[in-house]
Design goal:
about 25% strand; alpha+beta; about 25% helix; about 290 residues
Length: about 290
């Protein structure tokens, strides 16, 4: 009976995504960080006015000297949409062209030149379905514009707007539903904490293109994604979590996951990777994340 139950759980239908999240991972050259940030701050965009837009920020990784880096990706653009159709409408519309060199030969050439100067190679996309989102109302720009006016001089790093924690998981094939169900069964208290902005469990959706069925290039199938006013707010929540007995520990909403309970097989192909970011150029919808 126990084996039958385990099999049923592992093969049960997975949760339905309620958001579509697009990330582009950048490897910015040392010493070019401020120039890279200025390029984003100065871009023409009406992202915040588009149908289905929920949240955007540029994630600037916070390195931990005591923890080896998974890779040298140090910036990640992150846009949260209501669904894939909203993303596709933006990608195929005029707003996309405006934000990527204006659609002119000169604008595109300038963008490509800046990319070559500031980054090592082209950015790599990561597409995710957002599961079980939690959010509080956001604060859109008061001027009604679709992009925040942030002054950048190209020499100083931009001030951080939010703090973002991502815990990335490599879940063994056939165990995705069981892993997601662990989160679904948890009673979340995140919204009770000061400074909480939003949370989702992310499920990878494609490789080079959304929904193409390809294997993730970095091997991560899932990730937590939590947004906070600042690091202190995140740490106040994390420190409030009482350690569970060894036989009951499981993956937390924003903290570090641990091994499986006694008698339960390990569903991870490698240890999870907790990564933290300062979010700059944050843009919110009235609905929030």
């Amino acid at each position: 009976p126990e084996a039958a139950t385990a099999t049923a759980t592992a093969t049960a239908p997975t949760l339905t995504p309620e958001r579509f999240v697009v990330q582009n991972r950048f490897k910015v050259k040392a010493g070019r960080e401020a120039a890279f940030e200025k390029r984003w701050a100065d871009r023409e965009s009406r992202l915040g006015t588009l149908d289905g837009f929920r949240f955007f920020c540029m994630l600037r990784r916070v390195d931990d000297e005591n923890k080896p880096k998974e890779d040298d990706t140090n910036y990640v653009s992150c846009t949260v949409w209501e669904d894939f159709a909203n993303f596709e409408a933006w990608r195929k519309g005029d707003a996309f062209k405006e934000a990527h060199g204006g659609g002119t030969v000169g604008g595109v050439a300038s963008m490509l030149m800046a990319t070559a100067m500031n980054t090592k190679g082209k950015p790599k996309p990561a597409y995710w379905g957002g599961l079980m989102p939690l959010s509080v109302p956001g604060t859109p720009p008061s001027d009604g514009e679709g992009w925040r006016a942030v002054v950048a001089d190209g020499e100083s790093m931009l001030p951080k707007d939010v703090y973002v924690a991502m815990n990335r998981f490599s879940v063994v094939e056939g165990n995705h539903a069981a892993f997601e169900q662990r989160f679904a069964n948890r009673k979340s208290i995140l919204t009770d904490f000061d400074g909480f902005r939003g949370f989702m469990l992310l499920r990878r959706d494609g490789a080079k293109k959304a929904g193409d069925g390809g294997e993730p290039d970095d091997g991560f199938t899932h990730s937590t994604f939590s947004v906070w006013d600042n690091r202190a707010c995140f740490e106040a929540w994390r420190d409030s979590e009482k350690p569970a007995p060894a036989a009951e520990k499981t993956a937390g909403e924003g903290g570090s996951p641990v091994g499986p309970p006694a008698g339960r097989p390990n569903i991870f192909s490698r240890p999870p990777d907790a990564t933290f970011y300062e979010g700059i150029l944050a843009l919110e919808s009235a609905k929030g994340v």
